[in-house]
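user: can you give me the structure for this one chain? tokens are fine.
assistant: on it. calling the predictor now.
[tool input]
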Amino acid sequence: MGSAESDEPEGSDDPAGSTDSDVSNDSVQSADPNDSENTEVSEAPEDSAEPDESGDSDDTEPAEESDGTEESDGTEESDGSDESSESSDPDESSQPDESESPRDFDASDDDDEPDEPDDPEPTVIRSESEGAVTVDVEGADGERRDVAVDLAGPSDSRPVVSVSAVGIDPAGDARAYEATIGRPAAEPDGPDPVPRGTELGYVAFDSTLDPADTSAATLRFAVDSESLPSEASPEHVAALRYADGEWTTENVSHDREGDTHTVTLPHATPVAVVALEPGRVRITESEVPADWVRAGYEATLRTTVENPGDRPATRNLTVAMHGDPVAERRVSLGPGESATIGVTFEPPESGTVSLEGDEAGSIELRGDGDGDAESTSTGAETSETAPGFGVVAAVLALLVAGLGVRRRRP
């Protein structure tokens, strides 16, 4: 019987042992994936802590070593979540998230701005018709738009002028415009032909923009050098614009690169492409009217000059005596212009006067003494050649004497 009682304390220890086994069973149940409640609670932490689970199993080892956490399965799981949150260092991770997320949001806004620009690119429509090209621009942004064209003429077999590009630079708030460029023609459409130079082609150029709404208009074209006059070269090619009823090169910017020419105009207007003969000032006649001049005084040389060329010309005319320059005058003439001008000079001595190396006449320089001697000799010569003065005096004396005789008679 005593042995039976002694077995009871040992048997009483069995519940304690069973308690331990229950605890161990509970811990096993908490890890059992079949437990639906634990799976739902621990699902989000496990997903959020996937980078930690992919590494060393630090979260499971502390859970197995700590025997004191036997209260509930939820406590063990919350400890695991705390450890995962501690491993992510919320103090450090939250600060970059708060400071960086606004910048990322702003950066995304900045990145979205180019996708939806405030000013879209202009729409350029190029259409061709018989003998012309029309360029229609919508949504202009105030910058020049160069559009390629392909217009050559006047001859189809051998074109002299070939237009390759056209551009309009709008001014102000002009948002839409249209420009039309015609094929180079042998004669102008409306205006009179150019008064000088060799005509190469006329290009009709028009725009819906007013001159006040246009900053510049540009044409790019090439000229067949073999079609130029025999003595002409690409440097002799010029572009004239039609303004105020006449053809002019004023306010026309002309750049050359080989056979290619770029012409900038104030606005769209008809253009004449011509080969112009260079201008020059040619002396046609000169003379020195005076035969002599007193020392210290000036004489005048008169000359007639002309410009037979197609461009304006300027020349310095030099007057010389015995090869030494004594005067100079600058002369400017327009195309086809002529003029008669005077060049004053002070002769240093008597001699031949020349203009630009050609003899114009001769002049004598006289001093002050030479002029007085001439006057004196002329006066003496006059007194000698007037001998009647003595006879007159004698006659007067006789008359006076006769009057005296008459008075003496009673």
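assistant: here you go. Helices lie at 2-31, 36-48, 50-54, 60-65, 73-87, 90-115, 368-384, 389-408. Residues 2-31 form the longest helix (30 residues).
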